[in-house]
Amino acid sequence: FRALDLLCWIASLAYCNENGSIFPIVVSATTQLLISLLHACLFTSGRLLAHKCGRLLGILSRDSEHYPDDFVSHISHSLIQLVPLLPLIPSAASLHWFLRQLAYYCSSVFLS
Length: 112
Prior knowledge:
Layout: H1 2-16, H2 23-32, H3 34-43, H4 47-60, H5 71-82, H6 92-111
Helix pairs in contact: 1-4, 3-4, 3-5, 4-6, 5-6
């Protein structure tokens, strides 16, 4: 739980950094671990961690169109890869957060 809080805090600080040089690094590092992060937060835990993961994705997807690797498309592709594992989600709340993220990020990618 604390590690995800720390990640959200670091991402928020990096986003608010005036010169903006740290935020792309945080986005890039998270992109590399995105599937593992989503799997751990949505498939091995409950509502609280799923919600925190959604908050982290929201922070990191701000201004993502300004970077060469579009973070939102990485999120949507990662979520789509995890769809076959939906029966393994441990709680209804985690399923709710997964479907909420899937609807938001996939619709923004496929509509653009």
